[in-house]
Design brief:
Elements (H helix, E strand, L loop, with lengths): L2 H4 L3 H9 L14 E2 L2 E3 L2 E2 L3 E3 L2 E5 L2 E2 L3 E3 L4 E5 L2 E2 L3 E3 L4 E5 L2 E2 L3 E6 L1 E4 L2 E2 L3 E5 L2 E3 L2 E2 L3 E4 L9 E4 L2 E2 L3 E4 L2 E5 L2 E2 L3 E4 L3 E5 L2 E2 L3 E4 L5 E3 L21 E3 L3 E4 L5 E3 L2 E3 L3 E4 L6 E2 L4 E2 L3 E3 L3
Parallel strand pairs: 1-4, 2-5, 3-6, 4-7, 5-8, 6-9, 7-10, 8-11, 9-12, 10-13, 11-14, 12-15, 13-16, 14-17, 15-18, 16-19, 17-20, 18-21, 19-22, 20-23, 21-24, 22-25, 23-26, 24-27, 25-28, 26-29, 27-30, 28-31, 29-32, 30-33, 31-34, 32-35, 33-36, 34-37
């Protein structure tokens, strides 16, 4: 197939699919650029998203590249390669399996409710994960992103979670390694199990490690109506160089609790347990 024929428009692909049976079609290498909608097909190469593209029950054997300013909406699909989200672009992956990783290049937003086979990395304004990431989550948010950041809700992450900046919420999640949050605008971590260390450093606004926000009642954070589940940190809890208030409650720390160089001494409720030593301001 010649290159000129391969790069047909998404509209032509959709028109061709109208006459196809509803079952999965034969592999179609022509659906390379999408600016409309593609359904129930197999793409043997990469897909480039321009404008707004909806991929419904599509298998992409290559990568998906979301061009700057574009929006990719993947529903019940599978990407064998990586998902690349460009500057000011959005990607929504609902019930979608990305076998590779997700790369964020100053993206506007990412929402994934499915699975990612490798890691989620890069810079974005907003990232929400409610599914499974086999690797790490390493994301940074711009300094002017004061009301957006990372949201992990009911998520499972196999690797380390490293976050720089943003307003971040980690709720009812399972982290296979550790959690490090630096320069966050606000932080709430509740009902979450972390297999290694938890570090919060240089927070600019309130930090809530527990079930109810006592420091910022105007911000719900992780507040829940039901009886909360205790947080479990199987490594150390390190709170350092924070200029904002820090509160810890309803949490079990298996290792040491280290508090140093915080502008305000962290507040610990009596229900906090520490298996190791209490060091510094929390001693």
């Amino acid at each position: 197939m010649r290159a000129s024929t391969a790069l047909v428009t998404a509209a032509a692909v959709v028109a061709a699919l109208v006459t196809a049976p509803p079952a999965a079609a034969a592999p179609d290498a022509s659906a390379r650029t999408c600016s409309d909608s593609v359904e129930r097909t197999v793409v043997t190469g990469d897909v480039e998203v321009v404008g707004t593209c909806r991929l419904l029950r599509v298998v992409v054997l290559g990568d998906v590249h979301v061009a700057p300013g574009a929006w990719a909406y993947l529903v019940d699909s599978q990407v064998v390669g990586d998902l690349h989200v460009g500057r000011d672009a959005r990607a929504t992956a609902q019930g979608t399996d990305v076998r590779g990783g997700v790369h964020l290049d100053d993206a506007l937003g990412l929402l994934t409710t499915g699975s990612v086979g490798r890691s989620v990395r890069g810079r974005a304004t907003e990232v929400e994960i409610t599914g499974r990431v086999a690797g790490a989550v390493n994301v940074a948010f711009p300094s002017d992103a004061v009301r957006t950041g990372l949201s992990l809700r009911g998520a499972t992450v196999g690797g380390w979670v490293n976050v720089y900046g943003g307003q971040n919420v980690v709720l009812s999640s399972q982290l296979g390694r550790g959690l490090t949050l630096s320069w966050s605008r606000r932080t709430a971590v509740c009902e979450t199990t972390v297999q290694a260390d938890v570090t919060v450093r240089r927070a600019r606004r309130d930090v809530q490690l527990g079930d109810v926000s006592r420091l910022a009642p105007d911000w719900l954070g992780c507040s829940v109506e039901r009886v909360p589940v205790r947080g479990q940190y199987l490594g150390d809890l390190v709170l350092e160089d924070n200029v904002a208030a820090v509160a810890v409650e309803n949490t079990d720390v298996a290792g040491d609790l280290v508090c140093r160089r915080n502008d305000v001494v962290p507040v610990l409720t009596p229900d906090v347990t520490v298996g190791g030593s209490r060091v510094g301001q929390c001693g």
